[in-house]
Amino acid sequence: FGIAADENFVITTTNRKEITEDNFSELVQDGVTLYLLQSVDQMLLSATKERIDFLPHYDTLVKSGMYEYYASEGQNPLPFALAELIDNSLSATSRNTGIRSIQIQLLFDDSHGKPAVAVIDNGRGMTSKQLNNWAVYRLSKFTRQGDFESDHSGYVRPLPVPRSLNSDISYFGVGGKQAVFFVGQSARMISKPAESQDVHELVLSKEDF
């Protein structure tokens, strides 16, 4: 890599976790993307890309069709899809100490190439691994572990009584992806973790699939 003998450097994950002798076997696995930096918090000089590969979660088989069942009881399913997208923002802003800002924009011009629905919030943001995890279809946000652990770990689902703003809509982690592809043909997630300078972007599209 052309590193001088007297030059200091660190190797980190895209989540900015430094690779050490103690955590090497845990963090360095086949296919993982690593950064070679002068310091853990060094500003990246250019955008990086990370490929996401995964197998469908078993819930794809055992809970398939639940969303369609609830959305097809003679009702317009579009509100269900929008509710799933808004739920991500409810979850992201649930721990805000200040104002919770969630904007829903319907864009009918060509600013994004095609008409689009944009949901924007001032939540805590997602790390690269959390964004990777969001892409995994049917992976429950209550069962993720390690780097993929959800803020809802240890969560006990409340009794089925009327409630709101509790981020309990997308219980099986299916809604976001299914809602996106019900509304349109692609999704772009842009997120900046509150404690990091990095901005992460994920693009999913039917065309790519």
From TrEMBL:
GO terms for biological process: double-strand break repair. The lineage of its organism: Eukaryota, Metazoa, Chordata, Craniata, Vertebrata. It comes from the Eukaryota. Signal peptide: none annotated. Pfam families: HATPase_c_3 (PF13589). This is SMHD1 protein. It comes from Chloroceryle aenea (American pygmy kingfisher). Gene3D superfamilies: Histidine kinase-like ATPase, C-terminal domain.
